[in-house]
Amino acid sequence: MTLFKLRLDYLLFGGLSFALLLSMLTADFQDPTFFNQLYPSAGIQNWTGLIGALIGGSLLEIFGPSTLLLPWLLLRTALHQPRKISVLAGIYYAYVLVFLLSIFHEIALQSGLIQSVDLGIFWQTGYAGKLAVKWLEQSFNLALSLSALAAMFIFSIFRMYQLLSPLPFLAAVLTGAQNFLNMLVYKISPPPITENLQAAQLPNFK
After folding, report:
1. By the 8 A CB rule, do 53 and 33 touch?
2. How far apart are CA 42 and CA 119, in angstroms?
3. Looking at residue 56, what DSSP letter applies?
């Protein structure tokens, strides 16, 4: 019972994160989103249905390709132990990282570092990155803004560095799988009960 109590959170948050990632990977911008209320005549193409189309498609439209990191960041934020930062702080920095990467992606597109010809839907810049870059160009010097964004990005990485590595999560999953297999082996083939006691354990009647 202890094993199932310890690993129930991995099953719950792992399943939710996988469903969120699947809703993004199977997103089709003909499906309804918060920015597109039209229902396609051919039906919803997203594998996770209407809810997945609304959530996954909308996140892709907002943040662009950087939003694919969001399921992993939210999963590590929920399961990180020992907890160095709170869940709310982890969620905040996860969205900050995704937002900053969206801005950097838009700047790379505008500067020609990434060719914008025939880009798939996963490489289109989100609305947040486009609006942020346009606002920075009109309000501040873009080079100075890039320095401030880079400093914010480095600080966010520093705050989230313990959550970014997949090694603790993979180690916990492997440990849970090992414990589960050991329990199955014990149930299928329990160790034999020793029938013959050692001579030292026999009572002395003399």
Report:
1. yes
2. 24
3. I
Report pLDDT for 100: 93
- Predicted structure pTM score: 0.73
Give residue limits of the domains in the chain: 2-168
CA–CA gap between residue 42 and residue 31 (Å, rounded): 10
Pair 46, 57: CB distance under 8 Å: yes
**Single-letter amino acid, residue 152:** M
Q: At what angle do helices 70-79 and 142-164 cross, to 10 degrees?
A: 50
- Quick one: tokens of 102? 């969206």
Q: What pLDDT, in 10s, does the model give residues 163-192?
A: 777 676 677 677 777 777 777 777 787 666
DSSP code for 193: P
Residues 13-39 have pLDDT tens digits of 888 999 999 999 888 878 888 888 788
Across the chain, mean pLDDT equals: 79
Cα distance between residue 148 and residue 139, in whole Å: 14
Residue 162 and residue 80 in contact, taking contact as beta carbons nearer than 8 Å: yes
Q: Which residues contact 14 (CB under 8 A, 6 or more apart)?
A: 75
Supply 25's token pair: 């990977």
Residue 23 near residue 67 (C-beta atoms within 8 A): no
In angstroms, rounded to a whole number, what is the distance separating the alpha carbons of residues 93 and 105? 18
